[in-house]
């Protein structure tokens, strides 16, 4: 839109000829007159000029007289005659006004969307109808304060639900404020118009009256949820403001409804509303009295008014039993025996109203008045558990104008099992809005999933819900609630950890320790709350877990970091070669023996300005415990040997270095600083699902460290200096690498080859140690045979005929 300042356009009335003047403007304009033959252009120019002259312009005369062309201004002044100006005044017309239209809607289609698309669960129909009945009772109670005559007819304020299973009919009756005929048209005949919302607005406008925060309705569509299960709904209502009772009736597939006056005396009610649902064929199961009672307890357990359901009951009584004729004849023969009437116990069945809900929730009561047994009983109902618990008192929090209450419990055992850590469907927190249950299916909106073991309820009077009141919308209020609830949960867990009975927290950690470690990974904002709650075994405490605070207290004065090693068990961790030098110097090392431990510690990065250091990775710095002069001499002595070993191993290792962490082992294989440790590599292989691309990338570099003080390394050094190409020395290097691979926690790529090398070395070592060479037994047997020949019998000569 073109805007001109007062200096650009000056319109004033001259005495005598009412001529118009246009002041000098910044842009240039042609002085040529417009062509009168182009009617469309003249009309356009007239409209343009009328914006400058408040619409006082003649379409056919004003523009030619003014000589305005090309829609631009000049620095010159133009004047029209008085007659032309007068004609312009008389014939000027304002632009035609814009037409206004109302949105149209196909009522039957709109009802179908409300009924079938708005709600995801049919069960909520009863919750919505009970909430409407509760609002009607609340309105009556409020209005009765200033007008007691309204509640004079029926004093009891309650809700009654009658279920007829045989006919598939549910009847809900309340003794609330009821509706007049006009209110029926306004509230039931107008979709999305909330009578409760209008009532609250009236209360808000009346500053002296205040507001009633217990009213539930907001959107004006809750009543139509009845058509989720009913094909026909009848509403009979009587308002104390009217002498007549009216009946509203509507069908699910119809775009119209009927209203009539109630004339049947048997159907008259003193005050309130009676809603009758004629259920659909597939939904007649909702008319089961036990199911109705279950739905009331689930959704409307804590509505402010008593809810009665029609239930079958029974009591035991004794009744007489008719005598057997044979026994009766025998008794008649024995006159001396006193006869006693025989009875038996039977259960007498009857139907009556039964109170189904509790009108005073435990979280709305003063926490000082609630005893431990009441907390226990509520926990059992909430979790369906027989165990005791650690509970937190009811807390009341406020964010701006929004106030909410909560009560949280820590169960003693994990109900889903110790390994069920990442279950996102855990229904641990029940959300209520004005005592009406909304949902317990949240995916991190109210509680992070790592705290899914916390049980409890949250109740607020004002939360951002969607129209169906089933989904909690994201907002600053919700984020604030989540923040405060998480803080309360951590305070509760910290209280358990500081308990004088150490076994309490040990039991808690056994069940929920993995959840808190998962929190270290997912919730960086609460690292300061999570870290003091962690527990680990260590090289100085293999039987009892210690906290990070205890570790820091036990640190050496010169120690600058928190050392840890990740493994699959305490036995493998404490026997790893990485610990040798640290144990000698009495430096404590944490044992991370659960799969989640290593990732959790890496997520924390530090604790109380002490960095976490993995002792199985390269560049381990022991601070003042290093001897720099000795290291320089050793590097000079073994530097070339390291290069020789690296040449033999090739791409298997990134480098060969002198180790500062070994004392009794000849060598060790450490991970790169930014790669996976041996423990993490083992875990990721088990989860890679056949994809080895990421494994090869994250393996990173491996560094082969040797211990120069070990005899094997000294012999290897001597072999290099005497004969670098000796085959036995080469085989010794290969076997030393494979042994370091296994002892460091890695998995050999070819276990069979490693086994063959070990057997070969065993054969060389054990050859001839316990047995003689194979040729010695044969020689022994030859000598034995010759001895037998030498021992042959000697025969003396015999004389014959005087001759020998």
UniProtKB/TrEMBL annotation:
Ranges where the record places region Disordered: 319-341
Any one cellular component term from GO for this entry?
A: cytoplasm
Q: Do the record's keywords include Transmembrane?
A: no
GO molecular function annotations of the record: ATP binding; ATP hydrolysis activity; ATP-dependent protein folding chaperone; unfolded protein binding
Keyword ATP-binding, does the record have it? yes
Taxonomically, which superkingdom? Eukaryota
Basic and acidic residues bias spans: 326-338
What keywords is this UniProt entry annotated with?
ATP-binding, Chaperone, Nucleotide-binding, Stress response, Transit peptide
| Annotated residues for binding of ATP | 128, 132, 174, 179, 194-195, 218-223, 273, 469
Quote the NCBIfam families the UniProt record gives: PRK05218.1
- By its UniProt entry, which PANTHER family does this protein fall under? HEAT SHOCK PROTEIN 90 FAMILY MEMBER
**Protein family per UniProt:** Belongs to the heat shock protein 90 family.
Protein name per the record: Histidine kinase/HSP90-like ATPase domain-containing protein
């Amino acid at each position: 839109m073109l805007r001109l300042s007062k200096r650009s356009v000056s319109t004033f009335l001259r005495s005598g000829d009412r001529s118009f003047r246009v002041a000098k403007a910044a842009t240039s304009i042609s002085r040529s007159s417009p062509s009168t033959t182009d009617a469309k252009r003249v009309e356009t120019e007239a409209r343009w000029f009328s914006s400058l002259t408040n619409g006082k312009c003649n379409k056919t005369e004003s523009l030619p007289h003014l000589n305005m062309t090309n829609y631009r201004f000049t620095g010159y002044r133009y004047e029209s005659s008085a007659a032309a100006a007068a004609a312009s005044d008389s014939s000027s017309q304002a632009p035609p006004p814009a037409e206004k239209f109302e949105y149209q809607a196909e009522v039957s289609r709109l009802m179908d969307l409300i009924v079938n698309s708005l709600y995801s669960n049919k069960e909520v129909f009863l919750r919505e109808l009970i909430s409407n009945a509760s609002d009607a009772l609340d309105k009556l109670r409020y209005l009765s304060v200033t007008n007691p005559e309204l509640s004079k007819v029926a004093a009891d304020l309650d809700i009654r639900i009658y279920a007829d299973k045989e006919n598939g009919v549910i009847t809900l009756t309340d003794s609330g404020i009821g509706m007049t005929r006009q209110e029926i048209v306004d509230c039931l005949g107008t979709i999305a118009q909330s009578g409760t919302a209008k009532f609250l607005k009236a209360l808000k406008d009346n500053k002296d009256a205040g507001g009633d925060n217990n009213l539930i309705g907001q959107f004006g569509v809750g009543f139509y949820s009845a058509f989720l299960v009913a094909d026909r709904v009848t509403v009979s209502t009587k308002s104390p403001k009217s002498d007549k009772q009216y009946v509203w009736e509507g069908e699910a597939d119809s775009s119209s409804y009927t209203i009539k006056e109630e004339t049947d005396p048997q159907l008259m009610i003193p005050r309130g509303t009676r809603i009758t649902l004629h259920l659909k064929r597939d939904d007649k199961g909702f008319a089961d009295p036990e199911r109705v009672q279950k739905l009331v307890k689930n959704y409307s357990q804590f509505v402010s008014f008593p809810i009665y359901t029609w239930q079958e009951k029974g009591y035991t009584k004794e009744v007489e039993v008719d005598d057997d004729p044979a026994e009766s004849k025998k008794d008649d023969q024995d006159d001396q025996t006193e006869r006693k009437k025989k009875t038996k116990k039977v259960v007498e069945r009857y139907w009556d109203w039964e109170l189904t809900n509790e009108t005073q929730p435990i979280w709305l009561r003063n926490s000082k008045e609630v005893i431990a047994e009441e907390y226990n009983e509520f926990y059992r109902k909430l979790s369906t558990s027989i165990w005791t618990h650690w509970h937190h008192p009811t807390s009341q929090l406020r964010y701006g104008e929004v106030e909410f209450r909560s009560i949280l419990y820590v169960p003693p055992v994990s109900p889903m099992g110790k390994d069920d850590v990442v279950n996102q469907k855990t229904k641990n927190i029940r959300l209520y809005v004005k005592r009406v249950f909304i949902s317990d299916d949240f995916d991190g909106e109210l509680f992070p999933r790592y705290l899914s073991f916390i049980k409890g309820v949250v109740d607020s009077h004002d939360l951002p819900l969607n129209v169906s009141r089933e989904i909690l919308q994201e907002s600053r209020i919700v984020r604030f609630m989540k923040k405060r609830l998480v803080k309360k949960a951590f305070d509760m867990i910290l209280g358990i950890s500081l308990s004088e009975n150490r076994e309490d927290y040990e039991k808690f950690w056994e069940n929920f320790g993995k959840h808190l470690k998962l929190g270290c990974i997912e919730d960086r904002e609460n690292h300061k709350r999570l870290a003091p709650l962690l527990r680990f075994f260590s090289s100085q405490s293999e039987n009892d877990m210690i906290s990070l605070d205890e570790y820091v207290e036990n640190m050496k004065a010169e120690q600058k970091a928190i050392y840890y090693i990740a493994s699959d068990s305490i036995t493998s961790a404490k026997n790893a070669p990485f610990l040798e030098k640290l144990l000698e110097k009495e430096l404590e090392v944490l044992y991370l023996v659960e799969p989640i431990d290593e990732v959790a510690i890496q997520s924390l990065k530090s604790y109380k300005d002490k960095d976490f250091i993995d002792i199985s990775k390269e560049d381990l710095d022991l601070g003042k415990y290093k001897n720099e002069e000795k290291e320089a001499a050793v590097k000079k002595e073994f530097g070339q040997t390291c290069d020789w070993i690296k040449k033999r191993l090739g791409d298997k290792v990134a480098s060969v270095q002198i180790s500062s962490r070994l004392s009794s082992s000849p060598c060790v294989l450490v991970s790169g600083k930014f790669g996976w440790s041996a423990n993490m590599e083992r875990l990721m292989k088990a989860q890679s699902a056949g994809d080895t691309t990421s494994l090869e990338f994250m393996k990173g570099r491996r560094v082969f460290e040797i211990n120069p003080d070990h005899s094997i390394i000294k012999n290897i050094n001597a072999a290099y200096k005497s004969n670098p190409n000796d085959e036995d020395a080469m085989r010794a290097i290969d076997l030393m690498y494979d042994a370091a691979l296994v002892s460091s926690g890695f998995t050999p790529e070819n276990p069979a080859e490693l086994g063959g090398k070990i057997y070969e070395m065993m054969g060389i070592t054990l050859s001839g140690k316990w047995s003689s060479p194979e040729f010695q037994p044969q020689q022994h047997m030859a000598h034995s045979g010759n001895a037998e020949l030498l021992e042959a019998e000697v025969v003396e000569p015999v004389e014959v005929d005087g001759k020998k």
